[in-house]
Write a structure and sequence with these properties.
Elements (H helix, E strand, L loop, with lengths): L5 E7 L9 H12 L4 E7 L23 H11 L3 E7 L7 H8 L9 E7 L5 H13 L3 E2 L4 E3 L1 H8 L14 H21 L3
Parallel strand pairs: 1-2, 1-3, 3-4, 4-5, 4-6
Length: 196
């Protein structure tokens, strides 16, 4: 029987000690779990301390990854049908650790959709625009909709402890439904093109 479950991986794209990203990551995780025929997993880059600039050339196939952490990361990404990347904006860009995680594998990302949740002074718009260029080169499909957490909401949320009261996100409920529906529909279409 064909597996119709869409496996969504939510990537926490910051490893800073005082990071904010785990708050929206946990929130979107709970929202995504409410969708039918979806399984959701959080991937925290703190749990995958991949070396930088190693190997010099990414492996052509998953089986060729020499580094154990990259091999584990490769399997997690290969197992996903869709991705949500939660990213801060640092100086109009995204974290180096996130770029390294994206660059550490290649084929595993191909023909899979990705959506972004961002935050920062401008809602993280700049980091998302740059990331869309990166993921396109990884043969991913960035969805049109994104969740940009405003500076006002960011400041309110930084005062909250994890887990955050979901009512703080209430103004994002409608955009999040559109965001998740687009991600899931795109994932279903691309899963078919991958022959799965």
């Amino acid at each position: 029987m064909e597996n119709t479950t869409i496996r969504i991986k939510i990537i926490i794209g910051s490893t800073r000690s005082n990071r904010f990203s785990e708050k929206p990551a946990q929130w979107i995780y709970e929202e995504a779990k409410k969708k039918a025929d979806v399984s959701v997993e959080l991937l925290d880059l703190r749990d995958y301390p991949m070396p930088f600039l190693e190997p010099r050339v990414p492996a052509a196939r998953e089986s060729e990854h020499a580094n154990g952490i990259i091999k584990t990361w490769s399997q997690k990404i290969k197992d996903g049908d869709a991705f949500i990347i939660v990213t801060p904006e640092y100086n109009y860009g995204y974290p180096a650790v996130l770029k390294n995680a994206l660059d550490s594998v290649f084929q595993e990302w191909n023909k899979k959709p990705v959506g972004f949740i961002s935050y920062g002074r401008t809602g993280g718009f700049h980091s998302v625009e740059q990331l869309k260029q990166v993921v396109t080169q990884l043969q991913m499909v960035p969805i049109k909709n994104a969740i940009n957490i405003s500076d006002q909401m960011y400041r309110a949320l930084t005062k909250e402890q994890v887990p955050v009261n979901p009512e703080i996100f209430r103004m994002l409920r409608d955009p999040v439904l559109v965001f998740l529906n687009e991600l899931i529909q795109t994932a279903k279409e691309l899963k078919t093109t991958r022959g799965e």
